[in-house]
Amino acid sequence: MVARSVIVTGIPEQLRTDQALTEYYNNLNIGSVESCYVVRNVHKLNQLIKQRASALKKLEEAYAKYWGNPCSIPGYDPERILDDVEMYKKVLDQAENKKDESSDSSDNENGNTKTPLAIRLTKRNTWRKAMNTTFIKSMVEPLDQKKSSRRPTVRTGFLGLFGRKVDAIEHYTVLFDDLDKMTTDLRASPNYEMTNVAFVTFNHMSSAVIASQIAIHPEPFACRTIMAYEPRDVLWSSVSIRGRERIVREIIVWAITVVLIIFWFVPVVVLSSLMSINMIKRIAPRVADAIQQNAATTLGYYQGLRSRSAVAESTLSK
Which residues form the CSC1/OSCA1-like cytosolic domain (predicted)? Predict the structure, then answer.
């Protein structure tokens, strides 16, 4: 599918819908379009999702403070509990099978009619549910001993340092519900801002190649078409950046790079002068003599390497 797809940038206002862009490319007579998707601006939705996740995390932390940390229970081992649950299920299944076999054999001996399957399943599920409830309750009961008597509170002001104190669980529950409703409504809303970027997929690979090599629109820099990226290679947060903004960003990045080069030029020159062989001779003559004798190459020979190329590679790596 990637070989049949192109990415279009600089889309004019009148073509920023899926249907309009599909018709435009179909009218070029370079091949039929299979699908077309104009990228939507979902920045606000992303922010709401992050805020909802943050509210949920804080709500979980509030509940953890109120109920206590089960890991503080002496002998608490989650792996052992999971193993016990699995073993308990196996024992429960074996007990059910034996019970069914014994009931069937007793019915046959007494000449009674066999209990209908629906009734047997209902009894089995009821008994199993009761046993599961008892087993899980026996594991959860120690948690009640760690329950805090005071519910956690939080301040509603700036950074949680100011404002009046409110119940943390109720506050974050209301906040999460509100954010969840806003997120759901925004997801269902069709009123997303269309960007100037789109992905167009043709029915044939040759159509995509032709579209990426010709001028699609009479206006300069409009509907610039190139072969699409592999889906996992797309940076969705940057794909819809406008051309002017991208140029400004490049200028800023290059300016920062030049400043860093100038800033580090002086210390690098000083360090390189200190590392010259003449300076080393003044400070440590013996070290300079060892360097001139190519100590790194000597170490390569001492390693027992079998070829000169291996010695050279070892010297370079050192």
Answer: 3-237
On whether both 216 and 296 belong to a single domain, the answer is no
168 and 198 housed in the same domain: no
Give the CATH number of the domain where residue 34 resides: 3.30.70.330
Q: Residue 211 and residue 227: Cα distance in Å, rounded?
A: 9
The CB density around residue 192, as the number of other CB atoms within 10 Å, is 15
**Has this prediction a pTM greater than 0.85?**
no
Strand order in the sheet with 224-227: 33-41, 193-202, 5-9, 224-227
- How wide is the angle at C-alpha 218 spanned by C-alphas 215 and 224, nearest 5°? 45
Angle at 49 between CA 187 and CA 231, to 5 degrees: 75
The answer to whether 239 and 38 are in contact (CB under 8 A) is no
In angstroms, the CA 94 to CA 77 distance is: 26
Q: pLDDT tens across 115-155, in order?
A: 444 444 444 555 454 444 444 445 444 444 455 457 778 77
Q: Is 36 helix (H, G, I), strand (E, B) or coil?
A: strand
